[in-house]
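Record 1 of the preview.
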Amino acid sequence: MFTLNRFSFLFALTVGVNASFFAQKSKSHWYAALEYSLGKTSPANVDFPPIGPQHGFLVSVGTTQSKLNRTWKQQLGFPETGLTFSYVQLGNATYLGSAYTLTPFVNFKVFRAWSSRYQLKVGLGASYFTHLYDPLNNPNNKAISTRFTWGFRTNMYYQLWEKKAFDLKLGLGYFHNSNGHTRLPNNGLNTFLVSLYSQLNFNKKEATSSVTHPITATRQSYYASRFGLGRRVLSIYDNAAKDVYTMAVSSGVIYNKSFKLGAGMYYRLYKDYYDYIQENGAVVASLYPNFRNNPLQYASTIGISGSGELLLSHVGVELEMGINLYKPAYAFDWQINEEKYKDGAMQLGELTTYYKIKKTISTRLGVKAYLLNTDIAPRHNLFLGAFINANLGQADFTELTLGYQYALPLKTKKKA
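->
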């Protein structure tokens, strides 16, 4: 399960970092870091293999963003960006094995009103797993069923020691992996951990004075459209990945060339739903025979959404929260995948209140690559994105999307 809801608070915290002035205390430098993490992974299902402590070794290479040539750097208080490579022993060498993860990250200071020692590091990348679910040899590991998965990692650090050449931090973190519903089972792995982080700084210079720089407040309205192609599977009984066709329109406002808020509508057509209806699958035949009258209609989803995006020059990190106004086929999706052995027989999942909530709430998280630098506030722009879509927080499908954005002229106002 990809728990996007756990990311929502962190994203809101990121977008909420804003001030009129920032003090520039050092020039840009690069660094290399070594980190050891110790954590506990939550069981992904009933009868999950026994789990010992998770041990991780992480190597990061990054750079500070102190130069005043990008608005987003000032908005986030001159953060650090870079790449982290990690090797993790998952706590059971026989059935869970190890994971190798590569994660681009952004690391910035938080709670600066109280202390300068706290930092939040957020990264979204990919993981490779050595051991997978297998119905014969590894049937109880229902967490991971594909070699490659999404990898989300976040850490809150406390600065224990900070010198020109060396930093030492203590961290609390969360590590999640999911394949985005491209193959089942996909319960995912969730780990909470503590870590000790050591960093070597190169070309770092101590500042002789603190200089404040005013930020010009800007506002730019925009309109956007996108088309996407997703992949998902219907159930463990039919693990052939099929397409999801998506389209959406939205509009909103870009604040200070860095924070983008919008609202819109989306349409999705699920090929696996369409085929199951066309083929008169068992649940459709017994409970939803009317779906056969118009498979295209009943395999579709229509909804409205609101989104927030953090713009980092050519890169955007977007979180979308939506409401599905129409998603009829999710009924048999739920009943098939929630089927349980009860009272001596297999029984379909019940359409509970939780089902209704998951049918209604849609979440979407991913990264975009913009053709033109967002810091120059272009009137026209194209973007390519990779996203994971979810029902409430459980992965629904993985998507590649192509979009176009048109923006009105930039309006500026000097902050007081």
